Amino acid sequence: MTLQDILSLSWRTVRSNRLRTGITVSIIAFGIMALIGIITAIEAMNQSLYENFSILGANSFSLRYRERNIRIGGPPRSDLTRQQRGARRQRSSTMDRFITYDEARLFKERYNFPATVSISKFASGNATIFFNEQKTNPNVRVIGGDESYLLNSGYQLQVGRDFNQVDIESGRNVVVIGSDLVTKLFRGKHEYAVGKMIRIGSGKYRIIGTMQPRGASSFLSLDNIAILTYNNVRRVFSNAGSYNITIKAEDFKQMDAAIGEATGIFRSVRKLHFKDADNFYVDRSDTLVETLKNTLRYVRWAAIIIGVITLLGAAIGLTNIMLVAVSERTREIGLSKSIGAPASSIRTQFLWESILISLLGATFGIVLGIAVGNLFSMYLKTGFVVPWLWVLIGVVICFLTGLSAGLYPAIKASKLDPITALRYE
User: Max alpha carbon distance in the chain (Å)?
Assistant: First the structure.
C-alpha cells in the first residue's frame, strides 16, 4: 500500500471509533489548551508591558541623589596626613550634597550620547489648584520640568503645546496640567482649559497644554499633576530639594552604553575622586519590566509542566486505546497479512492512527488555547496574539506523543501471526 492509502485507511478507522477518539482528543486538547492558552496570555502581558513601558520610557533612566556614599578604596583615616584628611573631608562634603542646578545643566551640556536629556525638580506633593470657585483636593503633585520632560516621562499632549526655550529660561508662569485636573476644574473640556488662568499656591499660571490620561496605581494617580518649568520651581518654591536628570536612549539596545556614558560624565560633573563610589544612583525604568518578566517565566514553566503532565496522561490513555484497537482488529490484521500486506504497512497504519488522534487534539487545543489567551489580551487591550513558536512546539510535541504512544501497539500488531489472528474471536 502507498502512504496515501495508509493515511486514508487510518483516517477512516479514526472516524469510525468516534467515542474513544473524542475522549482521547479531548484529553490532549485540554493539555495543549492549557499550555498555549497560558503562553498566549503571557505574550499578551509582555506586549502590554512593552507598550506601556515604552510610553513610560522602557529605554530611559534617571540620575538621582544618593544620601550616603560608600568608600571603596584608600588607606584608613589614621594613616592619612592632615592635608589628605582635609582633602577627604572636602570630597565628603561634595559627595553629601544634592544634585544642584548647575550640575544638572552642565551634565545636559556635556552629554552627547544619542539620547534625550531632561531636567526636573520636585515642587510639591500636596498642592491645591484653584480655578475661579473650583478647587482640587490638596494632593496635586507639582513638578518642574523642561522641554523634554513630557517625552521622557511618558506623557503625551492632548491639547495645546509643550514648553519652549523662552518658557524655560525665563521661568515664567505657564503650566501643563494632567487630565485629572481638567476633569475636576474644567469638566473634562481640554480645549476650554487651554489659555485659562489657574492658581497654584499664591501664584497665577496660564495653562498652555493638557495631557492625555495615563492612569493610576493603588498609590498614585499619574494624571493628578501640574508641570511647571524647573526654573519657575527654582524661583517660586522654597524647597531646596535635589534636581533629577532623566535620559531616554534612542534605542533600548543602547541602554547599557548610555548608562555607562552618563555615569562617567556625571562623576566628572560631581568632581568625584577616582577612589570614591558614586554619590548618585541610576534608576532604570525597565527594572520593573524585567522583574515582571522574570515572574512570568515561572508562570510559563508552570504552564509547560501542566501541559507535559496532561500530555503524559494522554499518551498513556492513547497507548491503552491503541492496544484495545489491536485486540479488536486482530482478525482484520490477520486477513490483511494473509492477502499479502507486509508488517511495515500494518505498523505504519497503526502509527498514523495514533498520530492523527494526537494531531486532532493538538488542533483543537491550539485553537482553544489561542482563543482563551486572547480573551486576556482583549482585557489588556493589546493586539491579537498568536505565539507561533509555541504553536509549532505544540504540534511537534503532539506528533511525538502520538508516535511514542502508538509505537508499541503498532509493533505488536505488525508481529501478529496471520493464522493465529484469523482464529482470534
Answer: 109
Amino acid present at 76: P
Taking Cα atoms as reference points, which of 292, 237, 275 lies closest to residue 45?
292
pLDDT tens, position by position, 260-279? 999 999 999 998 888 888 88
Reading the block at residue 269, the C-alpha cell is: 560633573
Give all strands (DSSP E) within 133-273, no chain letters.
Answer: 134-135, 140-145, 157-160, 174-177, 197-200, 203-211, 225-229, 243-249
Distance (Å, whole) CA 199 – CA 130: 5
Sequential DSSP letters for 132-159: TTEE--S-EEEEEE-TTHHHHHT--EEE
CB 208 within 8 A of CB 157: no
List, in order, residues 6 or more apart from 103 with CB less than 8 Å away: 243, 266, 269, 270
Q: What's the pTM?
A: 0.55
pLDDT in tens, 130-172: 998 899 999 999 999 999 999 888 889 999 999 999 999 999 9
